[in-house]
Write a structure and sequence with these properties.
- The protein has one domain: Orthogonal Bundle (Arc Repressor Mutant, subunit A), CATH 1.10.10.10.
- The protein is built from six helices and three strands, in the order ααβααββαα.
- A three-stranded antiparallel β-sheet has the order 1-3-2.
- It is elongated.
Length: about 110
């Protein structure tokens, strides 16, 4: 991932409702969530959530599928992995033992 793509992803995540929606989708895993369900769970108006999901979609952090009348959103785990890799690319100046706690925390959350 290059710095411009990483900046776009961080910009998309810099708004509280978008960050909450992204975290909710990460938690949902491969099942994803319908747009209306995301709005309801986060108590955000549907048109506002639609705009927020469009920002996440544009940044490549989520993908969507139409299932009949429902639009279901999913985390783009490849992009999330690229973003985490970007952040840890040169972790701790060649001293991997300093990064182990961070990596263990990420792995433990899965």
């Amino acid at each position: 991932m290059d710095i411009l793509k990483a900046t776009e992803a961080f910009s998309a995540l810099s708004q509280p409702s978008r960050l909450e929606a992204f975290r909710l989708l990460v938690k949902a895993g491969n099942a994803g969530l319908a747009a209306g369900e995301i709005s309801a769970r986060l108590d955000v108006r549907q048109n506002t959530m639609s705009a927020n999901l469009a920002v996440l979609l544009h940044a490549g952090l989520v993908r969507r599928e139409r299932q009949g009348r429902i639009i279901r959103y999913f985390t783009s785990f490849d992009t999330m992995q690229d973003l985490l890799g970007f952040m840890l690319e040169e972790c701790c100046g060649g001293r991997p033992e300093l990064c182990r706690p961070v990596i263990a925390e990420i792995a433990g959350a899965c």
